[in-house]
Write a structure and sequence with these properties.
mainly beta, about 10% helix, OB fold (Dihydrolipoamide Acetyltransferase, E2P), 5-stranded antiparallel sheet, Molybdate_resp_trans_reg (chains A, B, C), Molybdenum-pterin-binding protein MopA (chains A, B, C), Transp-assoc_OB_typ1 (chains A, B, C), homotrimer, Mop_domain (chains A, B, C), 11 strands, molybdenum (chains A, B, C)
């Protein structure tokens, strides 16, 4: 399966916290780097998600917020990934940015050109990607 | 009511699965074609949603992922609609694609140009739309 | 902390409705104007959210739908903010619109150019912003 999601981060399911409708799934995408996805309980069953299972987090680039001087403890977005901007491609309304997260991991974000200007984002600048858990889709092989 | 959501799919509520905060609503948009939306329990009450009630699923085009060679059983997105690409309109960052789902149903997706290239999407190619249930808004008349 | 979210609406937490995984947080952003965000229960704890606490709602511009002739009681989006279009900036695929909500509040939305045309949106026209509670990120100082 190939998808249009510009971000496909493979990992290992570490923990699942099930509710009556939704479930939180913690996925380790690098040593010590865990991301959290909220999917439905039905999807946990359908994909047979459980600790130790390989899964891939699919994240559309326009679901990614970029932030500077972020304090992860002060924002409800469950995923906050720090990195360095490596590329900025500007369009008339939106811009596409690439963030190097280290360890060979990259993330693509699409934000408005207005925000690129306001945050002074350009190659070499540090930024963090904020992603709500409910915006992540999980896929298995 | 008219909205900017490029996708407005009318249907009939088939089932509702209520949790303490959220509810899953299954909406039949064509014979045998059901989509799932997650809305709040409060919205289910406010809109008086129940089996048999007409409702329309509103889906912003930038919430739609496109995929090829998809196995719906291996992705957590609760909605996977197969179709054929009928139109591609390219911008500098984003592209807008139209997918013919058959039965007179169409879906519009906005994805990055990078993904259009990577997936080789062009008119005549088969693709599936992946939409997370929590990204769908329901409206009633 | 500065983020790429074009909309950052400060307010006061008025109520929290906790479920096993998610929580609804009502945030008053102006007298009598409350918006609802769904965040995880874990985030409520991590940010120490409780009635009376200051928090800021972060809303990416591409999560905002615009609607005309909207009846808030007939749509599941928990947030419906009425205003007047003050600016439209067109790109080849997407357009960026500014909505004056009154009381000094503004909202930026990115929707497709096709929708701008279909809805006849231009400066001076009334429109409402529809935002799903699950698309809002909360931040605290």
């Amino acid at each position: 399966m190939r998808t249009s999601a510009r971000n496909a981060l493979p990992g290992i399911v570490k923990a699942i916290n099930q509710g009556p409708i939704s479930a939180e799934v913690d996925l380790e995408i690098a040593p010590g780097m865990t991301i959290c996805a909220i999917v439905t309980k039905r999807s946990v069953a359908a994909l047979d998600l459980k600790p130790g299972r390989k899964a891939t987090a699919l994240i559309k680039s326009n679901f990614v917020l970029l932030a500077r001087d972020v304090d992860a403890g002060k924002v409800s977005a469950r995923n906050c990934l720090a990195g360095v901007v490596t590329n900025v491609m500007d369009g008339p309304i939106n811009s596409e940015l690439t963030l190097d997260l280290g360890g060979g991991l990259e993330l693509t974000a699409v934000i408005t050109g207005g925000s690129v200007q306001a945050l002074g984002l350009k190659p070499g600048e540090r930024a963090s990607a904020l992603i709500k858990a409910s915006h992540i889709i999980l896929a298995v092989d």
